[in-house]
Amino acid sequence: MRPQDLCLVNESGEVVEPGNMHAVNPAGFAIHVAVHKARPDVVAACHCHSVPTKAFSALGCRLEPINQDACRFYEDHAIYEGFGGIVLAHEEGRRIAQALGTKKAVILANHGILTVAKTVDAATFLFGAMDRCIQAQLLADAAAAGRGTQTIKVGHEEAQYTRRIYTDEMEYVMFQSSFEDVVRASNGELPMQTGKEIPRTD
């Protein structure tokens, strides 16, 4: 991404130079600024309302460890149950950040999801991964209900072990193939490198 494509916003929600001077979504700002204030370790947060996450957020339940990918979020995501309308008030953003706590994701009841990480790449990957896991759980739950059965869950120890394998570094790396696809699809509009990468020493 080019510097001129980025939008820089101060803590008051004012768009400042350098960069893109477009208006910022005030609801998005209220959430993001609260998360960044509460979590200095977080470099990026991804938040959106996909169809699967909007449906799942109305159920009031956590993502279950029904497959390997879902184990990435095992005991590492929360639920924010206090939907207070569109997040225009900073207090609502603070409550969302409080619900997130030290975890990598939060399901916002009647709203959507939010994921955080130490890199933009990892936060983006986690959002896509959680979205797909939620979609898989909705399908599995519907199929199980139709058959009069229940989904099979990964065991506690196995789920914890799998979650620990998925480190920040691995989540960063796993996004790279998707990033390369976006760059290729841009037909040269986006560069693969910025020219400011840290050179390897080995």
Descriptive overview:
This is Class II aldolase/adducin N-terminal domain-containing protein. InterPro entries: Aldolase-II_Adducin_sf, Aldolase_II/adducin_N, Aldolase_II/adducin_N_sf. Residues 1-138 form the Class II aldolase/adducin N-terminal domain. With 202 residues, the protein is of the alpha+beta class. It has one domain (3-185): L-fuculose-1-phosphate Aldolase, CATH 3.40.225. The protein is 43% helix and 11% strand. A 4-stranded mixed beta sheet has the order 3-6-5-4. A two-stranded antiparallel ribbon has the order 1-2. A hairpin with a 3-residue loop joins strand 5 and strand 6 (112-117). Helix 1 (26-38) packs across helix 3 and helix 4 crosses helix 6. The longest helix has 28 residues, at 120-147. The two termini are 27 Å apart. The mean pLDDT is 86.
**Strand residue content:** 5-15%
CATH architecture: 3-Layer(aba) Sandwich
Q: N- to C-terminal separation?
A: 27 Å
Strand order of the largest sheet: 3-6-5-4
- Helicity level: 40-55%
| β-strand number | 6
Tell me the overall shape: globular
In total, how many domains does the architecture comprise? 1
How would a textbook summarize the main sheet? 4 strands, mixed
Q: Report the CATH topology name.
A: L-fuculose-1-phosphate Aldolase
Q: Total helix count?
A: 6
Write a compact overview of the structure shown.
It contains six helices and six strands, in the order E-E-H-E-H-E-H-E-E-H-H-H.
